[in-house]
Amino acid sequence: MAHRIVDTPAQLEQLFNLMRGLKLPITVEWVQGRDRTTEQNSLQWLWASEVAMQTGDRSAEDVQDDWRIQHGVPILREDNKTFRETYDRCLKPLPYEMKKAALRELQIKVTSAMKVRQMVRYMDAVQQECAEMGLRLTDPDPELAKYQQRYREKDH
Fold first, then answer.
1. What is the DSSP string of 67-116?
2. pTM > 0.85: yes or no
């Protein structure tokens, strides 16, 4: 399905012009927000690697799986009724390790399904957890930090 991210009034006008030229009928869907960024994704994996190295008791993938369940699932459950209902029916009753296995083996999207604002909340929760455990994480690139701060400010 064709899609386009619209950030500015000029881009919105371009989209309208494109749609005016389409043969009808058409079906239009939209989602508020934008998908998480590549930079956010890269940083979360760097953090998982750093935690794995500092703790020495699990792999970066295991760290990431724990974060997805502990921080990502609650965010998606809060924001997405379909995710909440499906997760609660199929995965919530399972023991913790089985939830981790199900998320990984079935490739259930958690962070990859997040929008930027959700990913900011997720990364903030991960950063806070690691700070409380005395773990050191790489600071985000200054541009990414500014970008994420703009999304935090929109929430308040």
1. HIIIIIHHHHHHH-HHHHHHHHHHTTTS-HHHHHHHHHHTT--SGGG-BH
2. no
Residues 114, 111: Cα–Cα separation, whole Å:
5
Domain of residue 98: give its range. 38-155
Q: How far apart are alpha carbons 83 and 87 in whole angstroms? A: 6
Place of tokens 């455990």: 133
Does residue 74 have a cis bond before it (omega within 30 degrees)?
A: no
Q: Is residue 4 part of a domain?
A: no
> Which among 23, 35, 26 has a CA at the least distance from the CA of 2?
26
- Average pLDDT of the chain is 88
Q: Which two tokens stand for residue 137?
A: 């994480």
Q: Lowest mean pLDDT: which of 34-38, 42-46, 69-73, 97-101? A: 34-38
Please check whether residue 30 lies inside any domain of the structure.
no
C-alpha dihedral (57, 63, 65, 67), degrees to nearest 10: 130
pLDDT tens by residue, 95-140: 999 999 999 999 999 998 988 889 999 999 999 999 999 999 998 8
* Residue 31 maps to a domain: no
